Amino acid sequence: MYQCNFCKRYFSRKQDLTQHCHQLHSYTDHSRTLNWVQDQQSSSNNNIRQKTIDNNVWNEIEGLDIFLQMTSGDDKQNNEKLDLNNAADVPIAFNEYTSFQNYDYTDYDISEYHEITQSQESKSISSKASSEDFCGVSLADAYKDLNNDSELTLWPSETYKEFMMAVTQYHLSDAASDSMLRILKKHCTDQLSGSTRKGRTFIYNMDVKGLQFKEKELLTFEEEIYKLHYRPIYDAIKSLVSNSDLSKDFLFNYEEQWEYGLDGSLVRVYSEQNTADWWRERYNPFSKILAFMIYIDGTTLDTLWRKSEYPIFLTLGNIPNLRLNLPDSKVLIGFLPHLTTRDNKLRNSKEFKQKQRDLKHRALKYLLGPLLKEDDLRNHENMQEAIASHNAENCSIHEYDNFFWNFRMMNIYDAAALDRMHLQEIGLFPYMLDYTRDMLMYQYGNRIISKMDNRLATITRFNNLRILKKGYQQGTKFTGGEMRDVMKIIVFVLDELYTTDNKINQNQTDSNLYTIASCKNLIICYIKFIKMYITSRKKKFNEDDLKIFEREIIDWSNDFVNIFAQFSPSGLQLPKLHMWIYHTIHTIRRYGSLNGLTTDTYETLHKNWVKNPYRMSNKKNTHNQMLKT
């Protein structure tokens, strides 16, 4: 039997498989298909061969051995020339030593501020990337890693290994693990650890190649050293590329998809990232594109919302969307430091916020620096022109060094794509619920609000449907999954919720301030939102679909503004609403279906990599404990 490497269908003959690939997967290289068929045929024989990592990308490079001999000797010399802390930075128009104008600071406050501004010179914090982070990043090293057997870590016994894997996977406490360990020792003769704590120490001391987290001091402020805890980005990329379950489905070639539209003409289709415009602009038949995506979002560590962290995850745009939304397609590469102060006056100043951005850019420069071949700072043309012409304030540009301007092939203002979960599930939809409750409270009083919460709490149970037992409480943070479940039942909750007879007594002046929508119009607005949300979850869009989707966005936004603008303090001047209306269609054309940009999976990763390890720590020096858990 022969299995298609792309859609997993089985065929009894090699000719059938080849014909299938030509018809349905014509965008792939013919040589790649034939090589794979030959591998399948040879593997069906009785010959037993040593298992190696196979990556067809390397098979397509002609004369690779000669190239490796030419380049391997030059890697060390090239790395020594790489300097990511070039002194010739872009001139910054903002004067770091400008005194505070809005506050009457004491001498102590000013000295604290100068401690920030002079930290680059006096408290030393070079953002220069470590030379160790460049080791093993050449083509020769990558080829060697892919074809050599992985180094095995020796355990005292297989039982010892399985026991510690279970302890780590299920986050067992030392007390519970020691009890299990005593039972194992009574019935097992294999060598085991004296205690669970010793077993954890054994794991911590393992020298696993590519899995070491490092730390770099970035800033000293208020007697606290801010550090970047990170994993070298090349090691993180290698861990994804060397995962055979992921790499076998990688998308490297640009695939321009077409299908017949409503009028019978051919129209473009946007689905995976390799079908979008940005891939077409950068695609070269003589090279391969490796698209990496970085996700940063804050998450709370305790139930009191007092402690939070900002984990940084990395994934690859070459992974198909269905596979991309699984947890093992992302890797944790570090924690973004966040500058804090107890001084309320300093916290609200423009200069302090500027230094917060400085700390973040310093961390990102150190983390992403190895991706740059050189450090000749070049700003994006429009941003540089605005700063040079002193129009930065009019263009809402911070006159500050932006590290992402170093990437010549990327416009950071275009590459920062929107995320559906933060815009819809925990963005615009909660806004609708909040404004709905404000409208009902103003016109009908607390009785209708209680009726709405009672309906949410007493809705008929259904499989996998989460119920808000206390109703929808404004100010409470809900997950994206909980908001999706509310979408499923909100129409039934609002059905005949109120009528004009429920109106409470108000004076004539107040009644003329707002126009209250009828229950029917309110339900229609929610139905339009749900239809729009369902459309946004499509796996692919053609041009006709995009036109329909754009009309749905406009129809819903018109109703949303007409009904709720009067209840918004800003008149619905919401960044999320602006992004959804004006940038969604452009994002799909540029980067493919929104399913490839969603961050639903990261909530699970926050639990596995951040929340649970923090709760298991002793709350002191938490970063080192969290990264080793």
Automatic annotation (TrEMBL):
GO terms for molecular function: zinc ion binding. Keywords: Metal-binding, Zinc, Zinc-finger. The keyword Zinc-finger applies. Pfam families: Plavaka. Residues 2-30 form the C2H2-type domain. It comes from Rhizophagus irregularis (strain DAOM 181602 / DAOM 197198 / MUCL 43194). This is C2H2-type domain-containing protein. InterPro entries: Plavaka, Znf_C2H2_type.
